[in-house]
């Protein structure tokens, strides 16, 4: 939007009106819900909801009166204010639609109560929306505002989804890294098991050889001892015979 549009009082008030209308809708829905459930018209919850809605509609009516006065001032000679005929038509339609919605809420309120909502115009009624003609080519600014809000929500959802996808991607990469590390550790364990088997086999072979050597040495020493003892006995016998 250009700097000229940013300085346009109508556009500034228009934004306030649309924001207040967005806030008034849930209040209206809440009022209808409480009214349908309330057992008596004097219910405190119903009175509080009605008061909140009346306050919101009153503020909306004040701002809408400013928009009406602005449209009335520029519709006779739009070019003098730097506006095109299409822009004036768009403003007429905006005033008509917002005013109609506010009047519908007011009528719903007055269908159950006798008090009326006071507006900035001073006469207790909003300006008649039908006082402004609507050209077929006029742009629906309210619809554009709603579309922008939906686009903002979609962009926010896309950002959240991107964050979720990024987190899932990071988790998947971490899982892949852990899987590779486990595979490497499994391969290392296989190598260690193979080496341990080889070393165990060699140890068993060495122990067998050592036991064989020990047995052989034991047999040889025993034979020597026996032969020595026999020799000693023979010598003793010979000595006994001689003596």
TrEMBL record:
Q: Highest lineage ranks of the organism? A: Eukaryota, Fungi, Dikarya, Ascomycota, Pezizomycotina
According to its UniProt entry, the protein's GO biological process terms are:
Golgi vesicle transport; protein transport
Q: Which segments constitute the T-SNARE coiled-coil homology domain?
A: 151-213
Question: Which organism's genome codes for this protein?
Answer: Cordyceps confragosa
Location(s), subcellular: Golgi apparatus membrane
Q: Which InterPro entries match?
A: SNARE, Syntaxin-6/10/61_N, T_SNARE_dom, Tlg1p-like_N
User: Which family, according to the similarity comment?
Assistant: Belongs to the syntaxin family.
Q: Which GO terms describe its cellular component?
A: Golgi membrane
Identification of the protein by name: t-SNARE affecting a late Golgi compartment protein 1
In terms of SUPFAM superfamilies, this protein maps to:
SNARE fusion complex, t-snare proteins
């Amino acid at each position: 939007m250009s700097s000229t549009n940013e300085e346009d009082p109508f556009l500034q008030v228009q934004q306030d009106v649309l924001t207040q209308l967005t806030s008034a809708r849930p209040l209206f829905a809440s009022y209808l819900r409480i009214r349908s459930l309330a057992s008596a018209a004097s219910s405190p919850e119903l009175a509080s909801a009605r008061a909140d809605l009346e306050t919101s509609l009153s503020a909306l009516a004040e701002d809408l009166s400013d928009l009406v006065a602005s449209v009335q001032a520029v519709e006779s000679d739009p070019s003098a204010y730097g506006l095109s005929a299409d822009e004036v038509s768009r403003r007429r339609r905006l005033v008509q639609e917002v005013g109609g919605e506010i009047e519908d809420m007011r009528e719903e309120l007055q269908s159950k109560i006798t008090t009326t909502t006071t507006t900035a115009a001073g006469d207790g009624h909003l300006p008649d929306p039908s006082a402004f003609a609507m050209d077929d080519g006029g742009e629906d600014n309210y619809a554009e505002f709603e579309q922008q809000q939906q686009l903002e929500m979609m962009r926010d959802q896309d950002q959240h989804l991107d964050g979720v996808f990024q987190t899932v991607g990071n988790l998947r990469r971490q899982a892949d890294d852990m899987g590779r590390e486990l595979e490497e550790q499994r391969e290392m364990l296989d190598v260690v098991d193979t080496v341990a088997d080889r070393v165990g086999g060699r140890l068993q072979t060495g122990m067998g050889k050592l036991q064989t050597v020990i047995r052989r040495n034991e047999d040889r020493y025993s034979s020597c001892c026996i032969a020595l003892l026999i020799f000693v006995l023979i010598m003793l016998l010979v000595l006994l015979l001689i003596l």
